[in-house]
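One such shown below:

_____
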Amino acid sequence: MKAKKVWWSVTALVVTVVVGGTAALGVAIQREYSDLSHGEAETVQAPENPLQPAQAQDVDLAALSEKLDELGKNEGLANFGGQVIDSETGTVVWGKDADKALIPASSTKVLTTAAATLALDESHRITTKVYRGKDPKNVVIKAAGDVWMTNEQLDDLADQIEKTGTQVEGVYVDTSAWAGEPQAPGWDPGNVNEGFVAPMEPAMLYGGRIGATKGDVPRSHTPALDVAGELAKRLGTGTFAAGTVTDGAEELASVESAPLSERALEMMRHSDNVMAEAIARELADARGKQPSFLTSTQATLDVLREHRFDVSGVDIKDNSGLSVDNRLSASVLAEVVNGAVKDPQLRPLAAYLPVAGGDGTLHGRYGESAARGFVRAKTGTLTGVSALAGTAQGQSGRVYAFAFVVNDGEILSARAAQDDLAAALHEF
């Protein structure tokens, strides 16, 4: 008899003894107490008023509109476009130049994330593979779009390669998965050194950050090559460069990114520009297009159009909102946010939004405001530009979708005015 069969036999014997002993004890107890009367079983009456889902109360929408009209006169709003939708009815309850095409800054990420949420599986992961080179002593990283690679992932790749027994003399990286220019039209060349973005290459360590894993610190101008260099260091060689995976090459190692849901949450909460562009390229790739700025922005708008959002007046050159050439209206932003409230398929977008006074880019805003915790919104900031697009829950239980975009303004004044508008929604 094999050991496995012995184990099962012993287990069966133990179970039989325990069950048998329990049964014998049960028989003895029954004989001893068989004459006891327990009376009738107690019954529980059904509640007269069972719990029901919360119902939004009626509100004075005319008073709400009047309140917003007054707040909308704030000079800090400068060149302004705004819209508020009552998600309970889908009615636009307030607007001011809502269809005006304005620079949206990072509120562009609302569109990017909406399209990715509608078209991609939230569990989708990006796989980065390493292949044997044409020279068997070399290895080639096939970059696939993971711009948030970690030291732990590189350690894992190195361990897998070492277990194959390969004596590595050179590490190369193939970046052919993406096409086009590494920076979008309308990007400030200083954005890289200032830490807002890195050249878009399909492999990066912590978004291309230099000497840090988070925050707006200077970024590398050669992020994919840096990944090759870090893997080379782990494999004991100083040789690394750009390269190409040859047809039929042997796969030596692979690692996966976090799922899309985690990456989208991180991107929205902290307004990560590199991750926004990468997620949009993930979308373009899923739709059969070689990812570039052109194909990824087209993919975003195509998906939204297919889901009946009117994006006819939208003109975006990137998916992060860094481009000063982007044009977008408050009405489009508000409609997409409202879609996230009403459509279960799009609802994850609402959960990705930062919470007022709670986390992400809204962590330090709303202070002692009664709306703290009741407003969730994506921010946007460029020189002279401030945007806020999201949801606000009113005291009535109603949820309002809103978008407030300011151009040609002073940032702190614009933010304060936008926060006042969003906070007013919580009063109704």
User: Anything to note?
Assistant: DSSP finds twelve helices and twelve strands in the chain. The chain has two domains: 61-122+262-427, 127-257. The two ends are 76 Å apart (CA to CA). Residues 124 and 259 are 5 Å apart (CA to CA).
